[in-house]
């Protein structure tokens, strides 16, 4: 339950802390990326708050935070404990609920195969 409730907050805070350090160290490409991201966020928030008249807190909780929680759930389901790295990727098969979350594919396995074969 913690992965779904406080996991997104921890993930977001650690990501923003890491990005802040990179920005502070003068990474120009990061600044450009964040500027473009900020422009995109402003457009989405204008659409959500002004045109759709949805409160910002509702958008944050029901879309942004819930989406991050689902990504934490997906990450949990796609990994398992194993002694060898190449055995740590799990495949979710034949599940209506999780099949939708995983978009009925197992590209995560291919991602790990490529990583371990190249490294």
UniProtKB/TrEMBL annotation:
Top-level taxon in the UniProt lineage: Bacteria
InterPro entries, alphabetized: FA_desaturase_dom
Pfam families assigned: FA_desaturase
Record-level GO BP terms: lipid metabolic process
Location of the Fatty acid desaturase domain: 16-114
Keyword terms of this UniProt record: Membrane, Plasmid, Transmembrane, Transmembrane helix
Keyword Transmembrane: yes
Annotated transmembrane regions: 34-50, 56-73
Stated name of the protein: Fatty acid desaturase
